[in-house]
Amino acid sequence: MNSFVARLAVALAALSFVIPAQAQDFPKHPITMIVPFAAGGTSDVIARAVAEEMGKALGQPIVIENVAGAGGSTALARAARADADGYTIAIGNAGTSAATYTIYPKLPFTPDSFAPIAMVAKTFGIVALRKDFPAKNLQEFIAYAKSNPGKINLGHAGVGSSNFLICKSFVQAAGIDVTLVGYRGAAPALTDAIGGQIDGVCDAAASVSQAIDDKLVRGLVVGSTVRLATLPDLPTSAEAGLPEFEAQGWNGLFAPKGTPPAIIEKLNAAARTAVESEPVKKRFYDLSTVAPDASEHTPDVLGKLVTRDVEKYRKLLEEKK
Question: What are phi and psi for residue 107, nearest 5 degrees?
Answer without folding.
Answer: -65, 150
